[in-house]
């Protein structure tokens, strides 16, 4: 499976660790004729969600910060894996030649190597550099803060320790918008716990009564916030019921 993934998407050996980690994740949530329950379901006590799955190695446009937060651009990247315990993705930036973590991206999952040459993509340089066409090629990932480097040698490819990496946190909005998103998210357990605590607080301090005749009650909705640490892990999750 790993060999097929890398061959079909024309990925170099330096990304073998990410391919192995992604394969292990998919096998844990894939149904089997011999095992009645998937490993993920046995471990977590609930069925796995498939909504967040993407085609490994597919290109994607990801928003990258340039300078301050007001200056940004979309770079052409390749999707290479799933960070542990966070609903985001690993990307390899073809322009900056760096590995990073982000959630929001425009995936081009129908652009397979059979449709176009994947190793010859023309990248438009930023306005600060001379305008000319350049060929984007795969190089060994450049070290960024908090991200170990995938080493390449002429003799063999070295796998990352534990087949995993700690990525940079994204500047994009990672909060959930609706109850449906919250319940299907990887942090749904934390979200459900916060909602139950909030409702219990209302029950202990408020009385449920009918509104006066002719009065239309103000609507309400749940607002979800999660705080991410420098390593991309969720350190806190909050759910609050607010008026619309």
From TrEMBL:
InterPro entries (alphabetical): SH3_retrovirus (IPR057670)
Organism superkingdom: Eukaryota
Record domain Retroviral polymerase SH3-like: where: 59-117
Record protein name field: Retroviral polymerase SH3-like domain-containing protein
Native source species: Sesamum radiatum (Black benniseed)
